[in-house]
Design brief:
The complex is a heterodimer of chains A (about 240) and B (about 260). Chain A has about 240 residues and is α/β, with parallel strands linked by helices. Chain A has helices at about 20-30, 40-50, 65-80, 100-130, 150-170, 195-200, 210-220, and strands at about 10-15, 35-40, 55-60, 85, 135-140, 175-185, 235. In chain B, helix 1 crosses helix 8, helix 3 runs parallel beside helix 4 and helix 4 (about 115-140) runs parallel beside helix 5. The chains are: A alpha/beta (about 240), B alpha/beta (about 260).
Chain lengths: ~240, ~260
């Protein structure tokens, strides 16, 4: 029998304890990878890792560069390498343009944008040294839209579209490919039952929201050896929802 | 439905499916057909050269794979119907359509003839439009289908050496999106792939390929087999939520030039 696709690959998934992040962690481990689940909450990360084979965990504040580097060093010390970085951690609190405080704006950009810069920068040198890497950043369809209900989130995600391209060009000569995934509505545990999700579904051409497992397939494909020629791009997987 | 661990067994993820690939007697099209067949599908090789299509199908069968062939001119709707009906008669069903057949002749604004313009649009846009229409009712009845259109990064760019080609592919992007919205409620996902420079046998004989690998950030051009992976992913059940989108796989070339 052939080896599993991700045999001997080591992956870090930020925000990997729940939602899309957990679905990605699960799929990677099912296909043979060893995964380090990163979450702000050590207990939550540990419980998530406990549900999977070949998964460890780290408690990391991804807005803190020193914490990222310390966790990276522990992963490298334990496994000897890191092949895949999934930048999934993020927050999405709704607030109108009037309601967004300076603190809320800064917090949003720290968690949803700066964290991607810091984590990708932390892993790029080890990936360059091993001449292999896959970085997948979770964006959002909101990055392409006007979003009066959550403008800071949409703007922070839009910044990632640029950042992904810059890292892609910087790292392409080293066989490190950097891409993004922009999901449409996903029926995470947190989203289920919320009014916005129910209102959106009839407007989605495929007439349903995505499951976290649907999204995991795209992220895992971009993180795989099947992807050898795509970099700096962001896949939009939103059920055909037309961009206005 | 969902695929779990990918091991030696589930590499056959297209077991029981029938994949039609147009322009599949050579180049990227043949690489796509071969990868489908290697992963368990019956590859239906459609090509304007029916002898070449039959020879390509025979090559696949000689490897122990499942293959079928049909000859057709994709600009002729009657021939599309005939190829569809023959494939359904022989294979029973069609799960996947890959619109790969296309022309990419040189030409400038100055030397463009009306005939050259019309010919490129006929093959690159009109063909896919009528191919998708010819297969959609069958797929709707089965509530399942995947259609993948081969576009190109030239669709997004000025192209002084092939203005008709680039414009035809830009038109294909629009056609693809309209079909995506039309068919999404029926479990049929329509998407595209825009390749950068691919080292087909034909391209290897040209002088542009070498210069492209230097200009491509990853430092190499794609093998047809590498490009086929994107098409197969979009044509698979791993893709359950993407419709009307076009993946750009150009080794970073498009990002660097934008």
């Amino acid at each position: 029998m052939a080896n599993a696709e991700f045999d001997r690959r080591v992956a870090v998934v930020t925000g990997g304890a729940s939602g899309i992040g957990f679905a990605i962690s699960k799929l990677l481990t099912e296909r043979g990878a060893t995964v380090s689940i990163w979450d702000l909450d050590d207990k939550v990360a540990g419980e998530a890792a406990g549900r999977l084979e070949r998964a460890g965990h780290e408690a990391v504040d991804v807005t803190d560069e020193a914490a990222i580097r310390a966790a990276r060093d522990r992963v490298l010390a334990e496994h000897g390498r890191c092949d895949i970085l999934i930048n999934n951690a993020g927050i999405y609190p709704h607030a109108t343009l009037h309601e967004i405080t300076v603190e809320a704006w800064d917090r949003m950009f720290d968690v949803d944008s700066k964290s991607v810069f810091l984590a990708t920068r932390a892993f790029m040198d080890p990936m360059i040294a091993q001449r292999y890497g896959r970085v997948v950043t979770i964006v959002s369809e909101d990055a392409y839209m006007a979003k009066p209900s959550i403008a800071h989130y949409a703007a922070a995600k839009a910044s990632l579209l640029s950042l992904i391209k810059t890292f892609a060009l910087e790292l392409a000569p080293h066989q490190v490919l950097c891409n993004g995934l922009a999901p449409g509505p996903v029926a995470t545990e947190r989203a289920k039952g919320q009014a916005w999700l129910a209102e959106r579904i009839p407007k989605i051409p495929v007439l349903r929201a995505a499951e976290p497992e649907d999204m995991a397939e795209y992220a895992v494909f971009l993180a795989s050896d099947r992807n050898r020629f795509m970099t700096g791009e962001t896949i939009i997987a939103n059920g055909g929802y037309i961009m206005m | 439905m969902r695929h779990g661990a990918i091991d030696g067994m589930s590499e056959k993820e297209f077991d029981g499916q029938v994949a039609v690939v147009t322009g599949a007697a050579g180049g990227i099209g043949f690489a796509i057909a071969k990868l489908f067949a290697e992963r368990g599908a019956t590859a239906s090789v459609w090509d304007v050269d029916s002898d070449a299509a039959a020879a390509a199908a025979k090559r696949l069968k000689d490897m122990g794979l499942k293959a079928h062939s049909a000859g057709l001119d994709v600009t002729d709707e009657e021939q599309i119907f005939a190829a569809r009906d023959a494939t359904l008669a022989d294979c029973g069903q069609i799960d996947i359509l890959v619109n790969n057949a296309g022309l990419y002749p040189e030409g400038t604004i100055q030397d463009m003839t009306r005939e050259a313009w019309d010919r490129v649009f006929a093959v690159n846009v009109t063909g896919p439009f009528f191919l998708m229409r010819a297969l959609m009712e069958h797929m709707k009845a089965r509530k399942y289908g995947r259609m993948v259109n081969i576009v190109t990064i030239d669709a997004y760019m000025a192209k002084q050496t092939k203005p008709h080609y680039a414009a035809s592919k830009a038109a294909l992007l629009s056609v693809m999106k309209t079909y995506a919205i039309e068919l999404a409620p029926h479990g049929i996902l329509v998407n595209g792939v825009s390749p950068g420079a691919v080292a087909t046998e034909r391209a290897k004989q040209s002088d542009w390929l070498e210069s492209y690998s230097k200009k491509t950030p990853v430092g190499y051009t794609a093998e047809p087999e590498q490009m086929a992976e994107y098409i197969l992913f979009l044509a698979s059940k791993r893709n359950m939520f993407m419709a009307g989108e076009c993946i750009i796989a150009s080794g970073g070339f498009y990002v660097a030039s934008a």
